[in-house]
Amino acid sequence: MGKENTLEEQAYKIILDGIVSGKYAAKMHLKESKLTHELEMSRTPIRRALSRLGSEGILSYQSNHGMVVNDIYFSTQDIISALEIRLIFTEVCIRKAKQKNVIFDIRKLRELLQRQQIALDNEDAHSYYQAVFESIRLIFVSTNNNLMYEFTAIIEKKLFIASLKTTFEKRKHYLQTEINFLEQFYDILFDKKYDEAIEIYTELTLNAIKSIIL
User: Fold this and answer.
1) Which residues form the HTH gntR-type domain (predicted)?
2) Are 113 and 19 found together in one domain?
3) Distance between first and last Cα of the chain
């Protein structure tokens, strides 16, 4: 069972990377038999990986064709809405942390922030947003808001696929400021100044929205 789960995760990542890179384009049929040969795996982990991508809205099932890559498009307003949802959920997590005296893994958050900095310096959009999404997951999971994270992750993943590079290029001028804000945000979380942390994260989000519009 453990080996199958590992192979399923490998298949999932390889197929997802293929969709992000454009190797598997929108409306392309992903056949189990072809993927089995290409990935050198049995059908079971590939079938599970395809099913998982289907549940996330990245693939859809069509009769007589199997799984098909969806044509995912995010408008500027969609991206803004995703940021607004993230802000609401993050505020809920911070308020919960204040009530229950939750201690966030600041060391790990700072490590992820360092990865963001390295990715920005290298103009690596993929690595930058991977670190962003991991930091969001860490904050949500730390306060046991797993359902919030799962909901947000579906939106973020579609955004990741639909407009990763274009969003990165459009916001590149602002991302160093974003990193500086996050550094301040993590310092305040470390000091358990939760109300101030909410104010900083709200300002960060509003500035992020402006960077997309302008």
Assistant:
1) 5-72
2) no
3) 50
